[in-house]
Amino acid sequence: xxxxxxxxxxxxxxxxxxxxxxxxxxxxxxxxxxxxxxxxxxxxxxxxxxxxxxxxxxxxxxxxxxxxxxxxxxxxxxxxxxxxxxxxxxxxxxxxxxxxxxxxxxxxxxxxxxxxxxxxxxxxxxxxxxxxxxxxxxxxxxxxxxxxxxxxxxxxxxxxxxxxxxxxxxxxxxxxxxxxxxxxxxxxxxxxxxxxxxxxxxxxxxxxxxxxxxxxxxxxxxxxxxxxxxxxxxxxxxxxxxxxxxxxxxxxxxxxxxxxxxxxxxxxxxxxxxxxxxxxxxxxxxxxxxxxxxxxxxxxxxxxxxxxxxxxxxxxxxxxxxxxxxxxxxxxxxxxxxxxxxxxxxxxxxxxxxxxxxxxxxxxxxxxxxxxxxxxxxxxxxxxxxxxxxxxxxxxxxxxxxxxxxxxxxxxxxxxxxxxxxxxxxxxxxxxxxxxxxxxxxxxxxxxxxxxxxxxxxxxxxxxxxxxxxxxxxxxxxxxxxxxxxx
Length: 487
Prior knowledge:
Blueprint lengths: L16 E3 L9 H8 L5 E4 L3 H10 L6 H7 L4 H11 L23 H19 L6 E6 L6 H10 L4 E5 L6 H9 L4 E3 L3 E2 L10 E3 L16 E6 L2 H9 L7 E5 L5 E2 L25 H5 L5 E4 L5 H10 L3 E4 L1 H4 L8 H13 L4 E4 L9 E4 L8 H6 L11 E4 L5 E4 L5 H6 L13 H8 L23 H9 L7 H8 L5
Parallel strand pairs: 1-12, 2-3, 3-4, 4-8, 6-15, 8-9, 9-11, 11-12
Antiparallel strand pairs: 5-7, 10-14, 13-14, 15-16
């Protein structure tokens, strides 16, 4: 096949390649830093960073990276109590459990807010350390309770871009402006069963809780909304209060959580959601809004990068190619299996309607020893001790509580949930930490099993593995490959 013609860059100040913000610790600071050093946009995941930081410290903090980041945190007494509480010299014993981190609520404790801000700061600080490249942070809007504290920590570390999807991010531009002034923000939180007259309220985060001495205003990072419809993009762009600095337009081939199809629910022979022409985004309509646009989901080849640029986009967002790279945060053993099965051509990636407690379709890779293996799944005793994907609901006594369809069934039903909602659900919180090499150990010695999420576009992964001398490839090699036909 003839190579696509080279495309001349039109806007050198914008990245052509945005590295996807993948899952718990997969897009960690090492991967984001490696991509940023190439001149493109490296992105850290903002999901559950407060838990991630504590598990790194309890693992002995190899290389001293977390301790170095905490030493730079602007309030030293916060860094000190975190180290005193979680750092274990040499790491916890092989049969020991990671210490529990409190779960966020509408009224999270001051200590939890401090930990979350510090964790957001540390992840971005390490990604930006020692160079002048740009770094972003990715959030899922549906994980709303820790969002303002994590965002504030990232902004304290000088994050350059904030990318948000999995829900309408209409409140993010205002939140960013307010946090840049170190002022309190209130986040509207959906509480199941609550009416407008129940006076449930929202979540308020006050930066003064963490930094009593108000520093100078922070630089405002660029905000990029991740969308899967032109309707949402237009609605955001038409209002000056919600207008982002750009869009990532994500297609159904992307890994992780995807927007559900429009129209009646339909599945194929594998139980995957069926997308049709109603789900094809009207790209010219979004480009006409006059904001930078990056295309995502199946754009991990040099030809697709050139195609995106020729269509008028500023570039592409790529996740899968970086997820399989040397610097991604997947556990080494898990990554080796992913690569071997991809090269062998027997890695099946499918979208599952049921697996995620959120109800969003979630792409999983079928790998032995992970939760896609029915024997592994059935051996796990349900437990909900991280609670990142819990949803708030209103109890009959008027108090707000939290539940998750992946928690023990009796517990979920007792909280008013319907048993049918638990069918096929998996604890993504524990599974994704396991896939990143931080599995919780359970009584009796068992460890939480991983679950691997991946995009379906594995051709570029196989190509790059075949083009290198080793078992894999670096993030820099992935960037060079993507830009190899761009002039």
